Amino acid sequence: MKERYEFSEIETKWQRRWDDEGLFKTEDAGGDKFYLLEMFPYPSGKLHMGHVRNYSIGDVAARYLRMTGKNVLHPMGWDAFGLPAENAAIKHGIHPDIWTREHIEAMRAQLKTLGISYDWDREVSACDPGFYKWTQWIFVQFFKHGLAYKKKNPVNWCPSCETVLANEQVVEGNCERCGTAVVKKSLEQWYLAITEYAQRLLDDLDGLHWPQNVKTMQQNWIGRSTGADVDFAIEGFGEKLRIFTTRPDTLFGVTYMVLAPEHPFVAPLTEGTEYEGDVAKFLEKLQFMSDIDRTSETLDKTGLFIGRYAINPLNGKRVPIFIADYVLMDYGTGAIMAVPAHDVRDFEFAVKYGLDIVPVIDPGPDSGIDITNLDAAFVADGKMINSGRFDGMDSREGIEAVTAYIEEQGYGVGSINFRLRDWLISRQRYWGTPIPMIYCEACGWVAEKEENLPVVLPTDVVFKGKGESPLTTSATFRNTECPVCGGPGEREIDTMDTFLDSSWYFMRYTDAHNDECFAGADKLKHWMPIDQYIGGVEHAILHLLYARFFTKFLYDKGYSPVDEPFTRLLTQGMVLAETFYRDGEGGRPQWYNFSEVDLSRDEQGRIVSAVLKEDGQPVTIGKVEKMAKSKNNGVDPEELIGKYGADTLRLFVLFASPPEKELEWSEAGLEGSYRFINRVWRIVRWAAEGTDGQQGAQHSALDSDAEKELLYAMNATIKKTTADIGTRYNFNTAISSIMEFVNAMYKVREGGGVRSELMREAAEKLVLLLSPFVPHVCAEMWEALGNVQSPLLEAWPVYDETALVSETEDIAVQVNGKLRGKIVVASGLDAQGLADAAAASDEVRAMTEGLTVVKVIGVPGRLVNIVAK
Nearest 5 degrees, angle CA 263-CA 269-CA 273? Predict the structure, then answer.
């Protein structure tokens, strides 16, 4: 074993050996299965610190589980379709396929550099035809069962570029490419009917071992509401206007109605009237507003009376009908009843447009609210007033009573509504899975025959950055034959939302090379569900919800053995870092990276000032924020690995914070991790040399207190580390206990009195315990200790309970309630025994010097509290 820890040489050696030996390959049969998965990344070409943290967390769990005897499936792949590759094609003239595969190669190499224990034989990539064939096949199943359909929907449209823009490409209402104001344009789009699964998606959250905040986010996104559908007649119009309300008890307080400007009733209600022109102008203005802006609570709401009136079915009152920007067509029925006395938004709108405000809920005399002269909406419960037969009824009871009444009278029905909307999956892009649908004049929209899948992306396309999808430029793609009648047909030129790829990819890992189906039933039954899924909380809603939807659908149709994909979920915290900036042109900040500034720190290591390396001028130290390109506060993992080694980087991200909490970047912390690995290297080297490479032996009778202390520390560390990794994923506290064990080993080394074979045993246990965290250096030390087999193939250490019976224990000492130190006493003392031991202690006498001890209170196993004057 070399004197120095040469991380570069060690890590290269073991990565090559692991690869050559196929150490991480997983067999499909045998063993107690455990499917562990981190969310697959978009191949941007460069790992960032969030990746490093996510994959290091998963790798510790995978290595630990393998050592405990589990048959662990731990694969990796690529969420390889997406807009950046297409933008690269437009900007640099490189085909998205070439760009993507080059970036995959780079990121795969980086992951191997980190020593992550992936079974690369199961690697999948969403852009491979062998993968997206099955994405298309699943879409066809949705279509066959009536859950995929096409309808018109507004999209972001740049008139200059003549193309559809994703929401991310709209910056302050303008196209990020050319700066032109973005407008709304209606296009035919494909949808998946996820709303058919809304109730099941909500109900089945209860059985998942997920963080409560993630469950709550999904519950809120699905948004189940109980209420009533109520029909309002419209004067001079043949159809009734249906609204949904969760507050039927306030129906008597309706003073106006609001339609979404896109509501299908608006045109026939205003056609040929004096309001038609104003409505057209209002709709034109809305083209420049996003849905987020329209529903924002901070922006002023605008509306327009359209000259028509509805009739309140409960009291016969005539109420005006408005259109307004804050009502969206794709939420609810696209129409609302407005009760300004009891809804904040309705109140503000009514005040602005001079509309009636009629209170129908009285908070009572003790509320301090003058219900006859409201200066704000009253939204709490109370007694019903101005509500006919329901006057005096508690408003909560009124909800059920009014609902029953409108059902009895035929005015409406009690109903359940969901905030969740059907999933729009069309994208006007090239680099995505082609939607396998064909339009035939005779047959309408029909699915491609399953035996003809995959519908492959053509290569004869032109990336202009303007106009329709590049697929329209292909001479070979669009025109085809109708699969039903054989007549001429046209292929769909939209591609799929990339979330479809990530909604089932985890199943493909179980049988990655199967050409006959997306995964064999036997493989799916063996591996599914995923026992532990790891990824960012930002995916709590869309990805995790869509994956649950896909799995339930495939389960219903007999293709999946489970109806929930992820049994346990860990959402790791973000990586944060300081920001540095100067005010630039127009007052906009110019952000600087760590590598561009020199820092001054105080004694606690906190940054107190920063200057630019380039000119020595000061820069402002901003807030600690998530590492992001926009703030230029990221650090390059490759550079750090080159400077400190992959094991050091892994150890830092695992030790600095619990996995689910935010991690604040600190190079000082990284340096501390590097020093610790060197410290481990030296003690293991000393133990290895002290035994002359002999095989370790079980300890015999212990001859010294030092040996008893070492054995106690070793077994206590095994017990704590096992619990922290195996049951809690508290990797930071596991590492902390291992650090204490190393300190105990150094104490023994300095004090002597321990036989070399026991020291060697301690070193071996130390290496095995550390190996999931820092696998390269542990593999090297394990070999130096005379072992042949990889630590990964060794059994996880088991502690000896009898060795944890210590003859002494540390007891905290408080003087007048304040912690003053610790004393060592015999184990198992009762309260009086502790008090007597403290009274006889020189340390306690020193703590109470100059004071008169009044009382000594002992708490067995914990502390002694001394009351003194």
Answer: 130
How does DSSP classify residue 744? H
- Whether the CA torsion 147, 437, 82, 171 is positive or negative: it is negative
Identify the band that residue 114 occupies on the pLDDT scale cut at 50, 70 and 90. Answer: very high
pTM for the structure as a whole = 0.89
Q: Say how far apart CA 229 and CA 318 lie, in whole Å.
A: 19
The single-letter code of the amino acid at 8 is S
* CA 692 – CA 83 distance, rounded (Å): 59
Category of 132 on φ-ψ map: left (φ > 0), alpha (ψ -120 to 50) or beta: alpha
Give, in degrees to the nearest 5, the angle at Cα 142 between 470 and 531. 100
Pairing label, strands 589-592, 580-583: antiparallel
Within a 10 A sphere around the Cβ of 292, how many other Cβ atoms?
9
Among 723, 725, 718, 745, residue whose Cα is nearest residue 803: 718
Q: 560 with 526: CB under 8 angstroms? A: no
Whether 130 has a pLDDT exceeding 90, the answer reads: yes
Q: What is the widest separation between alpha-carbon atoms in the chain?
A: 105
Structure tokens at 369: 């609210």
Can you list the positions of beta strands (E) in 197-266?
Answer: 224-234, 241-245, 256-259
Tokens 């321990």 belong to 754
pLDDT (tens digit per residue) in 631-658: 899 999 999 999 999 999 999 999 999 9
Q: What confidence tens digit (pLDDT) does each residue in 768-810 have? A: 999 999 999 999 999 999 999 999 999 999 999 988 887 788 8
| Contact status, residue 412 vs residue 230, Cβ threshold 8 Å | yes
Cα–Cα distances (Å) from 832 to 817, 848, 867, in that order, read: 19, 19, 15
Strand (E) or helix (H) holding 198 = helix 198-203
Apex 673 CA angle, 577 and 641, nearest 5: 70
- Per-residue exposure over 324-353, b if at least 16 CB sit within 10 Å of its own CB, e if not: bbbbbbebbbbbbbbbbbbbebbbbbbeeb
**DSSP letter string over 546-562?**
HHHHHHHHHHHTTS-S-
